[in-house]
Amino acid sequence: MRNPAPAPKLKKTSREKVLAKCICGAVELEIDFPAFWAWHDHSKPSRRAHGCAYVTYIGTWKSRFRVKKGAKSIRRFDDEDAKGMRSFCAVCGTPLTYERARSPKWVNIPRALFETRTGREPRYHVALDESPEWSYLGAKLVPLKGYPGVMWERPKQKRRRESDGGF
Ligand SMILES: [Zn+2]
Question: How far is the CA of 108 from the centre of ligand 1 (A)?
Fold first, then answer.
């Protein structure tokens, strides 16, 4: 009688995963760690879709992305003008994904949906020339007297008064 063949070793599937959630918790997304990259998107379509000055995304391959919970709560919006597809939670409105037609294998997820590290720092700025004039770009801030926790940007002073003479 032959010896029984050794049991095949199970391939270890120990890929670390990180979780993203919408505000209400109806939808949970998951990516394999680490994300491929992270970036700040200053484009007008993203600004409007999120209602803020700019959006910070992490990007990854769709093959490393999964909807873990709440697929039926996800609604899609095909943005034909910007050639992209966005999705959001139908319950709470949280933006979930942003896919661009020119990058069909990629998906972008707002960085803010992750409560843990994603493996990438956002070091890239896209469409900075579309940034609105009211966007905060790192100007010096000082505490606002009488309002703890509020900082403000002093109005710009004229660099040269007429009385300064000039030429
Ligand atoms: Zn939600």
Answer: 17
Three-class SS of the chain: CCCCCCCCCCCCCCCCEEEEECCCCCCEEEEECCCCEEEEECCHHHHHHHCCCCEEEEEEEHHHEEEEECHHHEEEEEECCCCEEEEEECCCCCEEEEEECCCCCEEEEEHHHECCCCCCCCCEEECHHHCCCCCCCCCCCEECCCCCCCEECCCCCCCCCHHHCCC
Domain boundaries 17-130, corresponding CATH code: 2.170.150.70
CA–centroid distance, residue 21 to ligand 1 (Å): 8
How confident is the prediction for the chain on average, in pLDDT? 89
- Give the global pTM: 0.82
Per residue in 84-96, pLDDT (tens digit) is 999 999 999 999 9
